[in-house]
Amino acid sequence: MAVYTEVGEADLAAFLSRYDLGQLLSYKGIAEGVENSNFLVRTERGTFILTLYEKRVNRADLPFFIGLLEHLADRGLSCPLPVQPVSGEALGELAGRPAALFTFLEGMWTRRPSAEQCGEVGRALADLHAKSGGFALTRANALSVGGWRPLYDGCGPEADKVSDGLLAEIGSELAFLEAHWPNGLPTGIIHADLFPDNVFFLRGRLSGLIDFYFACEDILAYDLAICLCAWCFELDGAFNITKGRALIEGYHSVRPLSDDELAALPILARGAALRFLLTRLYDWIHIPDTSLVTKKDPREYLRKLRFHAGVRTVADYGFQLGGEAA
Amino acid sequence: MAVYTEVGEADLAAFLSRYDLGQLLSYKGIAEGVENSNFLVRTERGTFILTLYEKRVNRADLPFFIGLLEHLADRGLSCPLPVQPVSGEALGELAGRPAALFTFLEGMWTRRPSAEQCGEVGRALADLHAKSGGFALTRANALSVGGWRPLYDGCGPEADKVSDGLLAEIGSELAFLEAHWPNGLPTGIIHADLFPDNVFFLRGRLSGLIDFYFACEDILAYDLAICLCAWCFELDGAFNITKGRALIEGYHSVRPLSDDELAALPILARGAALRFLLTRLYDWIHIPDTSLVTKKDPREYLRKLRFHAGVRTVADYGFQLGGEAA
């Protein structure tokens, strides 16, 4: 939950005066997002989300994030659309922070995704990849394979307090992934954090994607690998092959995966599991327990890493070429 | 800020099925309220506030709070109205907590009240007192004069770490107030916590009162005394006599204050300042710094206490009988 910055009515009204939205009626800080402060704002013209960018977000990245949402919404993807002021840029300033106003998306995220929902997520992800093509700006993925070793070094021997032998196990995985990370696969803009809390459903259908603040340029199939980690495991840690098949088939039906991409999926998923294991472990070790941030258990991703390390082909995820047409 | 309880979509949809509100469209936890978890809920029929009552609220008090809001809204006071289910009671259960749904009030609370706004608050408070008459239930004020000594005893010598000599000063104030607390003044249901964040304004007018979870039976003029503390001091600690006059005149114009009430106002305000000094001091000493709760500086109320202790008559608050007609 997150409202890091207090916003006064007069300041907000001044900020909104740049828009043609009628009078401000109410605003409430909402307990959503970890990096930024978010408010639900109601004016005479409707309901909006106001985001204040806090210091964990690099200001130099904001034109990329705002521009990407404009690019995607223009192409019909259901995501928060930055509202255009009558004059000036969508990115403004409020309470000393960069700030922008977005359209409000109805819908709820799902705590227990069904296989059908996994299929919808696969299709939406492929749609996002198709529509992000042609976007003029780019942003490197600081959390791709090249960014894992600094995190690993930053964890150090403390890792073994979380799980016996963890440091050595991660070290060996890391060396393997650095040596075998695929080259030459199609790249583009990926979401890079499409967990269930960033996908809304309404009346049984996917209604929108949110929180693009990890979006970056990377291997497209790596985004699908992240979703395999985020959507297809049960609470008891078991991989659900029905959900895996639905996710991959959904993606493949919109943006067909090449043989190379399919062959690389297990190692990409292994990398995705390591990436979330490392960031969770780093936070577990370095964020004080007294912080407002709820720390997530890294061991969940150790189990997922071990699972993916044992996968030989996409058939182990339930996917078979041509199977989706059967 | 406060969302203590996670609510899943299926549970919320089941809870809402008791109402005739159409389909659930979205819900967001909001950073408002300290005692309870609050969500902004949108359905096909509109926008609502969902409150889950957490353990700091006594369940036995809930029928009083819910019933009072129904009683007041029925009489035209602008406050959250508990939405009636098609069958059953407004007070239900969700995620293992007592829960109720309320109408959403547009408006914003003011960080810097003007004298005009103080006048509106005075009128709204008197209106609340008039309209709460005839409500069948009652609730004792655990934080009235009889409840202060246990708080004082619970602070103990730690108080002097907050301000030199504080324990002795409070002890002497407490003894004075216990000995001279007025008897025989009109009583009724009071709000007991009508601070600026509980009063909404919209288009320059007062649009509603919220957060009745300290409401109780007590001396009516004591509620006005609380507002004198909460609304009429500047950030630098100085009492603003223009705001004091506006507040009292506003109240008096709707529910005329008797000579006894006016004469008692200084001691009631002294008591109100001590009450907030004691609860803030108690929290300051007993709530760990690592808690999610933002602790408020008790010394603000020490300054207010000293001010009221030096007041002789309501003229010192800017009020003169007949003056409001001049």
Describe this structure in words.
- The structure is a homodimer of 326-residue chains.
- Helices cover 40% and strands 15% of the residues of chain A.
- The first copy, chain A, is globular.
- The first copy, chain A, contains ten helices and nine strands.
- In chain A, helix 3 (115-132) runs parallel beside helix 8 and helix 7 packs across helix 9.
- In chain A, the strands form three sheets. In chain A, strands 1-2-3-5-4 form a five-stranded antiparallel beta sheet, covered by helices on one side. Chain A has a two-stranded antiparallel sheet with strand order 6-9. In chain A, strands 7-8 form a two-stranded antiparallel ribbon.
- The first copy, chain A, has helices at 9-16, 62-74, 115-132, 148-155, 159-162, 166-180, 220-231, 241-254, 259-286, 299-309, and strands spanning 24-30, 37-43, 46-52, 92-94, 97-103, 187-190, 199-202, 205-209, 216-219.
- Chain A has two domains: 9-103, 2-Layer Sandwich (Phosphorylase Kinase, domain 1); 115-325, Aminoglycoside 3'-phosphotransferase, Chain: A, domain 2, CATH 3.90.1200.10.
- Chain A binds chain B through residues 1, 3, 8-9, 23-32, 40, 42, 47, 104-112, 200, 202-203, 289-290, 292, and chain B through 1, 3, 8-9, 23-32, 40, 42, 47, 104-112, 200, 202-203, 289-290, 292.
